[in-house]
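name: query_chain
kind: protein
chains: 1
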Amino acid sequence: MSLTTADFDYLLPDHRIAQRPARPRDAALMLDTRAQPFADRGVLDLPSLLDPGDLLVVNDTRVIPARLTARRGQARVEIMLNRAEGNGIWHALVRNARRLKAGDTIEIEGAPITARVVEDPEEGAVRLDFGPDEEALAAALDQAGEIPLPPYIQREHGPLAEDASDYQTLFAERPGAVAAPTASLHFTSRLMAALEARGVRRATLTLHVGAGTFLPLRTDNPAEHKLHAEWGQITPETAALINETRAAGRRIVAVGTTVLRLLETAATGDIARPLQPFQGLTRIFLLPGHRFTTADLLMTNFHLPKSTLLMLVAGFSGLERMRAAYAHALAGPYRFTSYGDSSLWVRA
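structure:
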C-alpha cells in the first residue's frame, strides 16, 4: 500500500480540541467503531462491552515536570527532557540549541542545579549530564520544572494548577514520561470497580512517552519519518498474564497507542507465539500494512490530523474505518486530542 501523509489529513476546527478534561473523567464520550453503524457511547459503558476474562493492558508511566528554562551565561535556552539514559544523563530537546556546545555548563532557572552538555547538539537534541544524584534532580524538577502540556492545549500563563493532576492517569506510578498516555486519563476508581465486578482483569506495562510524540511529520512519505526512541518494559508477569488470556480465548484490550506500540515491539509477528518480556528502547512506527498480533481491541482518544498516532489507528483498524469514524465524530459532539473523548477499535 502506497500512502502519503495527506492520506491522514482532515479538517479539525480549533474549538473541537479539548482544553480541559471531562468532569468527572469517566463522563467522557466513547465512539464504538467495532461495527457499523458506529455506536455513540460513554466511557462508563466500557464494562458492558467487555467479557469476563478479558484483559486491559495499561501504561503505568508518570509524567514528570520536564520543561525547563536554563542559561549559559546570558544566553537563555528552553529544554524539554526527553529520555533518561542512566547515571544522570538525559536526552533532551532544546530550543536555541545552537547556543550550546559540548562541555558547556548550563544553570537551571529556579533550582540550584546545573547540567553539562555532553556533546554538540544535533537537530535540536542534546545529551545533558545532571550528575548521579537522582533525588536532587527530581527535587529540582519539582521546584523549577513545568508539566509539558501538548502545544495544542492553550494556557496563556502556563499550566493551570489542576493540570498537574488532570494530566496524570489513575495508573501513574513510574516517573519518566514527558507526555501522558492519554487513553488512560478517562479511568476512575468507579470505572475500575465496575470492570472488576464484570470480571475484566488488568495488566500493566511501562512506556515512558517522549517529546517526539508531539513532532509533526516533515515528509510526504510517512515511511520516511523516524520516531525518537522511548524506553519501555514488559515484565515477565505481564507477559505471562497476556499469554494466559490468549490461551483462554479472551481478548487483549490495549488502553492507548503507547501500550499497543510496546506490545508490538515485543511481538514476534506470529500471533500463535507467546509474547516475550521486554526491556529497552523502541522506535517502532506502526502504519497501515503492519500485521498487528498482540491486541484485539484498542481504546484511544481522537488524534490530530497527519499524526503518527492517527496512522497507528488506521493501521490497526483499517484506513477506511478510521476515516468514517472520524467523520462521524466530527459530525457529532466529540472532543478531540489529549483531554478529549475516547474511541474503541477492533483489529482489522
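note: The chain has eight helices and 17 strands.
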